[in-house]
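re: the backbone from monday

yeah here it is again, tokenized this time
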């Protein structure tokens, strides 16, 4: 197994490994450490079935069955389908997943360690791949905040709400998303999260606030909260924190959902098919101990 860092603010390729067989404990520790260090890991050229994909994910923690899980692989409710493709005129996957900067599961009391995508179909135009997934480095975003802001926000929390992103997407012209049901709202009520948290793998602080789900800073007047969140979102949006993954079919990509935010670039058309399998790994294990 070979780790090839991108040389950019995030990202590495993990080469010479076949994920159809389980990683050894030593390999797993290497991958876990690399996930903390590089944030986004690409395992190219992986030809594995849905079961092996889910098993790989389960190594990192419990797999979430998403609250908005309308589309999943047969017999695998934890393997969601992200796609713009249709069968008999009906969508076969969630067509607009992640199109806006966010962090998966920050709206959940139990947060996510990672997401894993396995690219089945990647749209292309003129030989170039479309539908990049972009990431931002929240270790670096924290490190470069003004000292006085770090001090004043230390120990504070902010409220995150699943409905923020959902309703933002629903408001787009032509959105296929139905309104959230009472049941979905009840399963994912708004939750408070620390604005800065210690990353379980790196042991360093990260900025854990994202424009997709973070609503307001708790215990602060609305206007003050709005101003600080605007500042935090503008700060993390600086180009120096940005990394883009350009997809190749059979890429298996795992990213850190604590130390990065991400965005799906919607630059492809309905007749340019994209199909991703996805699992969301909840942060249910003692990663500090596992990475040690
Ligand atoms: C996700 C997501 C990005 C993409 O899976 O959480 O945001 O590029 N997807 O499909
Ligand atoms: Mn996402």
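seq for it, each position gets an aa:
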């Amino acid at each position: 197994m070979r780790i090839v860092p991108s040389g950019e603010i995030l990202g590495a390729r993990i080469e010479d490994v076949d994920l159809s067989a389980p990683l050894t404990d030593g390999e797993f520790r290497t991958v876990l450490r690399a996930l903390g260090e590089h944030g986004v890991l690409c395992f190219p050229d992986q030809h594995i079935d849905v079961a092996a994909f889910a098993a790989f994910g389960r190594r990192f923690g419990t797999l979430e069955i998403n609250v908005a899980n309308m589309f999943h692989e047969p017999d695998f409710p934890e393997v969601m389908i992200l796609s713009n493709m249709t069968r008999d005129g009906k969508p076969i996957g969630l067509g607009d997943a992640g199109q806006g900067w966010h962090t998966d599961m920050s709206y959940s009391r139990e947060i996510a360690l990672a997401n894993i995508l396995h690219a089945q179909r990647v749209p292309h135009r003129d030989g170039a791949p479309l539908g990049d997934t972009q990431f931002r480095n929240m270790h670096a975003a924290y490190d470069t905040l003004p000292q006085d802001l770090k001090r004043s926000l230390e120990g504070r929390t902010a409220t995150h709400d699943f409905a923020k992103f959902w309703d933002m997407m629903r408001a787009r012209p032509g959105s296929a998303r139905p309104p959230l049901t009472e049941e979905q709202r009840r399963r994912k009520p708004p939750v408070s999260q620390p604005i800065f948290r210690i990353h379980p793998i790196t042991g360093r602080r990260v900025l854990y606030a994202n424009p997709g789900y973070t609503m307001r800073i708790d215990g602060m007047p609305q206007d003050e909260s709005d101003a600080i969140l605007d500042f935090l979102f503008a700060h993390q949006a600086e180009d120096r924190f940005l990394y883009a993954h350009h997809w190749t079919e059979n890429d298996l990509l795992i990213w850190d959902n604590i130390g990065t935010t991400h965005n799906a670039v919607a630059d492809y058309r309905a007749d340019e098919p994209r199909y991703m399998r996805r699992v969301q790994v909840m942060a249910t294990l003692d990663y500090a101990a596992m990475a040690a």
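The chain has one domain: 2-291. The longest helix spans residues 222-236.
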